[in-house]
Design goal:
about 170 residues; 2 domains; four-stranded mixed sheet; about 15% helix
Length: about 170
């Protein structure tokens, strides 16, 4: 699954946009780190140790702070948890599939709706699910199957905008 999100990169004094489109407002910060004991350490992948978070602007305007030293849970001033960040990863060079990594940044529906209304913004999420089918007796060629859709969040609620479902990618070459 792939999801594109406008991202900020932390700097020494401020956060800067990562070559993003100007018409989109980045809310999330993706730490720029290289974490590894040595080149053969499969468990010390950067994604498992460097979790994304919300931008300083969002954290300060909403009164949100980390509830633990690893930045897994974020709470408002009244103690209400509003954000959860999960990360996992394993970088195994000895397997055919390579690294297995991922992050998940999730927030409460009430917080998101309140934030969008307060800042008069919408959130569009493009989701692309991919499935790889290796060649076998029934399929002479390997192929990718895609399902694509858009989620539109606003102060009024959420809307699912369907796209292509189970669409086989045809290689033109």
């Amino acid at each position: 699954m792939q999801v594109w999100l406008p991202i900020l990169i932390p700097g020494d004094t401020d956060e800067r946009a990562r070559n993003e489109k100007e018409e989109f407002t980045p809310w999330a910060v993706e730490p720029d780190t290289e974490i590894r004991l040595d080149e053969y350490d499969p468990w010390a992948t950067p994604v498992a140790n460097a979790r994304p978070t919300l931008s300083r602007r969002v954290l300060e305007s909403e009164g949100i702070s980390s509830a633990d030293p690893f930045g897994r849970i974020w709470k408002q001033k009244d103690g209400t948890p509003v954000l959860s960040v999960q990360a996992w990863g394993r970088d195994d060079r000895n397997t055919e599939d390579g690294p297995t990594t991922g992050t998940r940044l999730s927030c409460s529906h009430a917080f998101l709706r309140s934030f969008l209304k307060k800042h008069q913004q919408d959130l569009l999420v493009l989701v692309k699910l991919e499935r790889y089918e290796k060649a076998d007796r029934t399929h002479s060629n390997s192929r990718w199957i895609h399902t694509v859709y858009v989620l539109h969040f606003s102060s009024k609620g959420a809307e699912l905008i369907p796209g292509k479902i189970n669409h086989a990618y045809e290689n033109r070459y």
